[in-house]
Design goal:
With about 130 residues, the protein is of the alpha+beta class. The protein folds into two domains: about 5-60, Ribosomal Protein S8, Chain: A, domain 1; about 75-130, Dna Ligase, domain 1 (2-Layer Sandwich), CATH 3.30.1490.10. The protein is built from three helices and eight strands; from the N terminus they run αβαββββββαβ. One of its GO terms (molecular function) is structural constituent of ribosome. It comes from Marinifilum breve.
Length: about 130
C-alpha cells in the first residue's frame, strides 16, 4: 500500500456511503491521532483500538442523524499525496468551508486541526479536509 492515509479515508467514505454502523481500519499512530480528532470534533460516535498482536485495528462507530439518517461526515478529501506533498506555513493555513469544516495537519508538534495550529502558530503538511 503506497498511501495508508488515503486508504483510511476511503474506507470511511465507503462505509458512510453504504450506511454501515462500524468500520475497521488497520492501525497506525497517525491514523489513531486522526481518529481522535474526528471524535473530538463530533464527526464520529466512538472508536476503539484493538491490539491483535500484529499491526492492530481501529474500530470506528460512524455517526448519523437519528431521524433522517444523514451522516455527520459529508466529505473527506485527501490533500497531500505521496507524489505531491502540500505544506503550509502558520500564516497561510487553509479554512475549510469558511471555518465550518476542519483541515487535519501533521505538524512538528503532532497531528492537529487547522484551528489548533493557528493558535499554536505552527505550520505543517495538510493531510486532509473533513466537512
Amino acid at each position: 500500500m503506497t498511501d495508508p492515509i488515503a486508504d483510511f479515508l476511503t474506507r470511511l467514505r465507503n462505509a458512510i456511503m453504504a450506511n454501515h454502523k462500524v468500520v475497521e481500519v488497520p492501525a497506525s499512530n497517525v491514523k489513531k491521532e486522526m481518529t481522535k480528532i474526528l471524535k473530538d470534533k463530533g464527526y464520529i460516535l466512538n472508536y476503539k483500538f484493538v491490539d491483535d498482536g500484529l499491526q492492530g485495528v481501529i474500530k470506528i462507530a460512524l455517526k448519523y442523524h437519528p431521524e433522517t439518517k444523514i451522516p455527520a461526515i459529508k466529505d473527506l478529501k485527501r490533500v497531500s499525496k505521496p507524489g505531491l506533498r502540500k505544506y503550509c506555513g502558520a500564516l497561510e493555513l487553509p479554512r475549510v468551508l469558511n471555518g465550518l469544516g476542519i483541515a487535519i495537519l501533521s505538524t512538528s508538534q503532532g497531528v492537529m486541526t487547522d484551528k489548533e495550529a493557528r493558535q499554536k502558530h505552527v505550520g505543517g503538511e495538510i493531510l486532509c479536509y473533513v466537512y
